[in-house]
Target: Hemerythrin family protein
Amino acid sequence: MCFLSRINQLAAAQLIGNRSIIGEVLDELLDYAQGHFQHEEEFMRRTGFVAYERHYGIHQRFEGWLSQVHWQYLKGLRQDLSEELLKYLNGWLITHILDEDLACRLEGART
Ligand SMILES: [Fe+2]
Model:
């Protein structure tokens, strides 16, 4: 299952107000993001991607933000996931995948 499917799952769980499913999906989303970022960063290092440091920083900031949301949710500091948060998540991933990741893949394919 990809990022977007997980975000859709999150939105559906939020809609029905199921806290345990939201917690599980946030957990899976974080795991998936970490695995995906590690794999991509490995590819960037292997192919000598010129914007590696910048891209790595974007991953780190996103991972930190998602970890914080996850932690706040599990600790009950965040009661639900707002529509803005889901939109941000969706927008970030689409922008990141279409712009940043594609640039990395294209440059990697040239090397
Ligand atoms: Fe990326």
The first helix runs from residue 3 to 16. The CA atoms of residues 31 and 55 lie 19 Å apart. The pocket of fe (ii) ion is lined by residues 40, 55, 59, 96, 100-101 (CB under 6 Å).
